[in-house]
# Entry
Amino acid sequence: MKTLEELKAIRESMQSQMGLRKESGEQIRVVVGMATCGIASGARPVLNALSDAVQAKGLKNVAVTQTGCIGLCQYEPIVEVMEPGKDKVTYVKMTPEKANEVIDQHLIRGQVIKKYTITEMLG
Amino acid sequence: MYRSHVLVCGGTGCTSSGCPKIIEALQTEIKKAGLKEEVSVVQTGCHGLCALGPIMIVYPEATFYALVKPEDVPEIVSEHLLKGRIVNRLVYKETVTEEGIKSLNDTDFYRKQHRIALRNCGVINPENIDEYIATDGYEALGRVLTEYTPDQVIQTILDSGLRGRGGGGFPTGMKWKLAKGNDADQKYVCCNADEGDPGAFMDRSVLEGDPHVVLEAMAIAGYAIGASQGYIYVRAEYPIAVDRLKIAIAQAREYGLLGKNIFNSGFDFDIDLRLGAGAFVCGEETALMTSIEGNRGEPRPRPPFPAQKGLFEKPTILNNVETYANIPQIILHGAEWFASMGTEKSKGTKVFALGGKINNTGLVEIPMGTTLREVIDEIGGGIPNGKKFKAAQTGGPSGGCIPMEHFDIPIDYDNLIGIGSMMGSGGLIVMDEDNCMVDIAKFFLEFTVDESCGKCTPCRIGTKRLYEMLEKITNGNGTLEDLDKLEELCYYIKENALCGLGQTAPNPVLSTLRFFKDEYLSHVTDKKCPAGVCKALLSYIIDADKCKGCTLCARICPNGAIIGKVKEAHIIEQDKCIKCGACMEKCRFGAISKK
# Structure
């Protein structure tokens, strides 16, 4: 270790992983339905894709967590995005590819991807 | 990349309550569930709530599981980690509210705490230097070496108002300034990790939970005073701390954060460990240095002070673990930030080890000036079984007790000395109405008699005589004259002992005499122990009206002291009774009482 920059590089690469252990009310929560129905229809790859992308892109204010069945089993895998002070957005029939789109468009740019939301799907 | 981190406390408290088995079970179950690539198990340092160990926290939900058993692990893995359903029955009850789970930081135990020295304990993996770096680790050392002159470092510490956390409360910056002012070809930086007060374990927790902070702070101190070598004197009874320090030193050397030319600044600094055999006197600075030199741990007269002639007769600074744990934060956030916390003459925070008759046994870090009432009633969760508070003992065998009348005193160095106690290293033992204060004084004296090194007469013989007098009183043979002699001898020892051990050894006696003279008097004049602790002064009696003659007490008595026929009232033969209390516990009719 010869410079502060080297130290900073280690710090930043570690911080994206350590961000998982933060506790703050300001966080955006991304919740994946992981009950039997969710798991059976492929929620785990979705959860992992979300979790990896959040850490890889260093989104410090986003927490990816899981929840149980919310009762809409035919629409699993379901991903809910909860931002403080905003309405909950529910994405349905997710895939890892769609999850990455949600990260890029919704979480980073702030644009809800309407076509994947439950309101679109239910008509 | 992991989507979830499971933190398991690996402090000494949780280790002895079974965390290694929990970690083993977690790893097996996680593998079985196919979550090995998704969930990371991290062993951390102490979270402070030792009474609830083994402790487990699951992130990102920050779910706090308490009193976890290996049998619970499969359920946590299959329900929480796999399906995201929190296992409510294992969640720390204080975090459960009607609206759901609240954050640990909002519980009574943590809300009033302010964690500076303990900030990483329970948060990072102490065996991974990268996690320490992620929480701004070694940034302070880097800044000091590239941007500060040694004088600026010392000025920052002086301005912060930091005082030694080992007990004495000497201003840390002043210590460094004195050592820097003495020229020598070699100087030393030492760390006192000999934590000997019974009941204090914050230094152990810092070493176990955040060992790098001590290394970083010692390197900063080395730069400030012009030393190139550091020693950590740690007791061999702290095997987990010793292991983690060894790992931390090796990692820091590998990263070039210890060794030659750190941060390309031309500054060299290295640290070695020295293990102590656990003598209380080796926590005294001159005895500690004598022990590092390879000699028997005995104190030497001061002056010369360590800053002039310390280790190997070279200028040396010696600071306690908790003191060091504050240093990097002071550098990073500035002296003003630190000085904004606490009272006029005691800045920052202090870690206390809560023990004795209190619900939340564990470690708490509070701003100086917090009242004893807040610490015991709010953070500590009060006294169990609805008993009444009698006194709190601070400073271990060197300190004294704080009675109910000073319950609202803001805790800082000077206030505690003002009422005849001392901060000490921060042990805080809570006593209720069932504790006899004479017996407590005797307990601490017994400890100092054992631990006196024997070099000076006032301590070697004086403490022994004090102990004998206390024994005479608790046996019911004391006289009023003895109380006067007791006090006189206390002052004599305080004035004449060579080192801190002897000078403070009479404190428990003096402070109990001051606040609980009535208890001493009951022992001496009425021959009674009001708390019912001193065996020689109490007798167990069976109330003939209540006794049903069930014979249970007669059968449990280990000494055959209870006689009586079935269905007739029993009698305790006082000359045979050994006052163990077994009969009273066993009686179903409340017929046995002690007087």
Q: What stands out?
A: Chain A has a mean pLDDT of 87. Chain A touches chain B through 35 residues (CB under 8 Å). The first helix of chain A runs from residue 4 to 18. The radius of gyration of chain A is 16 Å.
